[in-house]
Amino acid sequence: MAIWLPRWPIQRLLRDEPELSGRAVVLYESFRGGRRVCAVSQRAAQRGVHIDMPVAEATSLVERHERYVAAHDAAADRAMLEQLAGWCQRFSPLVALDIAEEKGARETAASGPQGLLLDVTGLPSLFGGEGAFARQIVRDFSREGWYVRVALADTAGTAWAMAHYGGGRTAVGRTVADRRSHRGSKLPREVPQIVPAGQSLAALAPLPVAALRLSEATVTRLASLGLITIGQVAELPRAALASRFDEELLRRLDEALGSREEATPAEHAAEPLMAACRFPTPTDRREVLEFAWQDLIDQLCRQLVQRGEGALRLECSLELEAGEPLLISLSTYRPVADARHLKDLLRLRWERQPLDQAAWRIEVSVPLTAPLERRQQTLFDATTTHSGGPGGEFTGQTTQRAVATLIDRLSSRLGREAVLSARLTGDAVPEYASLTRPLSGQRPLRTTARHRSSRQPQQPAKRPAGARPLWLVPRPLRVPVVATVVVAEHEREGTPIRFRLRGTDHVVARCWGPERIETGWWRGAAVRRDYYRVETTTGLRFWLFRCLRQQAWFLHGMFE
Amino acid sequence: MSTDPPPTEPVRPEILRQLAEVLRRAERTAGVAGGGVDTPHSSLVTSGVPAVDRLLPSGGFVRGTLVEWLAPPNVCGPGAAGGAGALALSAAREAAFAGGAVVVVERADGDALRFHPPAAAAWGVDLARLLIVRPTSDADEIWALDQVARCRGVAAWLWWGGGLEGRDFRRLQLATEQSGSLGLLVRPCALQSQPSWATLRMVVEPLPAAHTAGANDEPRQTVQRLRVRLLRVRGGADAATVDLEIDDATYTIAAAKRGDLAASLADSASLARRAGA
């Protein structure tokens, strides 16, 4: 049985963010230095956006208020599909992701897995027949919020073809997006296609050759020879096909008709990593609990090492006699499988955790893991090399490990948000010129997350145009400027000569500027400021600006 | 028609710049006892300013020690002003040249001043290796400083702080010694009289400009002038001073030119009176 989720990246996105339904959603990916569209919603397709179009062209075709352009998150798509595969275990124990063959030389969203293949041999009778089985699947999926096209056949190839191309519809059918906006939450349910046993050839004959999961090149060649449907191809002598096309065509044909076995690797949900310990009587003695979780961490680390993975997040939950269970949650900077390190981190938190009631069960689990990085031997400590990713920033193996341990310990006691790294965004507005992010608890090899706006951070400039202060006030502080000098040739306020801050008057000795920063109109209220570097008679240096909209002076920072 | 030669890799000027850095560094540390070729594990770190290096008997900062700058306090929030920050960042940049992380420990309370990373980047600190730690309580701050000082992977750590208990200070000094990192503290100059465990103490005083121009007269250079006075150094003469100029536009620190010295000396006395330093 094949289950196809049309426009899978868009569907997943819309399910996560239902407010986007009805809008023209365009997902792009970077390809050879440019950005190309890889998935479009129905509304966007109506406007003329299609796959492989450059993003700039796509954005010009759609109105600003109804478009939503974002980067395609292939990892999230796959993760959600894997989750669905696990959920489909209720229908069949053998569920596989539908990995389409490479189309041409590149993997795009169009060729990433967009559906599931289930092996349902012998199962439909349990559900009351093939028809009832398929209808139940469609019902369950639409209850979860997914729009699917289901087909049931002898072989995976036939089922795939019927799901994608069967029923006289083209591959790109209607999607859930527009229905939702019109009718509320009721999703359309497609009638499942069922191919009776032994009639695969008859069912496949009217379908186009692309339904055989062939590469684009092969499809084009077949079309140039006038072979449009599978029926035509099947009528030709096999020797002729073998001599003119590579083995892929024959293989796919055989798989679809059942004369060749097709292997589909089944997905198995990973066993959750969890160890628990139950006490015969509830205890509130800290040594006993400490011994218990140390033992549990040892068990988990053995499992982690076996799997070759390291923990990125650890959760310890104590079920108390009365009240809410106590939860201690840790995250680490790099995947860790070292029991001593994890115990250290948990101990730091444990020591500050008061325990007023007895606990009768303790459970330690690892919700987030990542593959353990193999240690590489480096001959030299490289100097000032930038390598991407969180692991490559601190050079040298012992240095890296020492810093990773430091980050873990600091994050464990001070909290994730207290250990940050910064990066430049190249934005001219000082508040947004750099972004900080917590260092621990993130999967190190993740693809970039969704961006809320279509604007990517630009290449950061090496030096900003003007001098930047070392200290910035998070929110600019309004400062009454007592007197200014009016520049003669322009009839507007000039540079400040005296201002009052926190009750003290400062007299300006020297002043540089103005530096005009005028930008950010896409973020809402535009920023129009004239910045002045001001040195007072006491030697302090301030960074003031005059907001041109409000005609008021603000303090934004201090130099050194 | 001849085809154009393939474009030279854009990384070559970067390689040249790095080579020039290494040569400069080797020249500077040559001739110092125990110095010579600047290996990654050498214990001597230049301060980033040749004038300051000349002031110090060892010719630079020594890894595994605490360096303290005392400067006029900031008006609104933690830290101190006067140009010490630029010196600290230059030292951190030099210390991290051969690898390791740079850590800034700051207490970010509400609307108080916050560290601005683009300025650090402009001073040459590698942001990919910069760590910002923000504790929220006194106890957490001391603990965090201790952890950072103890870490072998940290090349330099910076703290714009205030009062420090004697035993905490001593513990920091021991931790730094053990790990070989360079501890850079910038504290208000009011704490000058308090005992300190820093091996090297310097007082930073801002100097006014040579000419106090009104706003009409745009000064041509964007330099800040300050005086660094050695308060305590191991094995050196006390009270040696040097005048420096910090250029905010090009992010360089250099010795002040002699010509303005007379005027600045005259003004600094009145400046000290007013600031009450």
What features would you highlight for this structure?
heterodimer, A: 560 residues, alpha+beta, seven-stranded antiparallel beta sheet, B: 277 residues, alpha/beta, nine-stranded mixed beta sheet, 12 strands, 31% helix, globular
Short précis:
The complex is a heterodimer of chains A (560) and B (277). Chain A is an alpha+beta fold.
Task: Describe this entry's structure for a reader.
The complex is a heterodimer of chains A (560) and B (277). Chain A is 28% helix and 27% strand. By secondary structure, chain A is of the alpha+beta class. Chain A has a 7-stranded antiparallel beta sheet, with no helix packed on it. In chain A, α6 packs across α12 (247-257), α13 packs antiparallel against α14 and α14 runs parallel beside α15 (397-414). The model of chain A is unreliable at 101-109, 169-186, 376-393, 443-461 and 487-491 (pLDDT under 50). Chain B is an alpha/beta fold. Helix content of chain B is 31%, strand content 23%. Chain B is built from 7 helices and 12 strands. A 9-stranded mixed beta sheet of chain B has the order 6-4-7-8-3-9-10-11-12, with helices on both faces. In chain B, α5 (138-150) runs parallel beside α6 (166-179). Chain B is globular. Classes of the chains: A alpha+beta (560), B alpha/beta (277). Chains A and B meet through α15, β13, β15, β17 and β18 of A and α3, β5, α4, β6 and α5 of B.
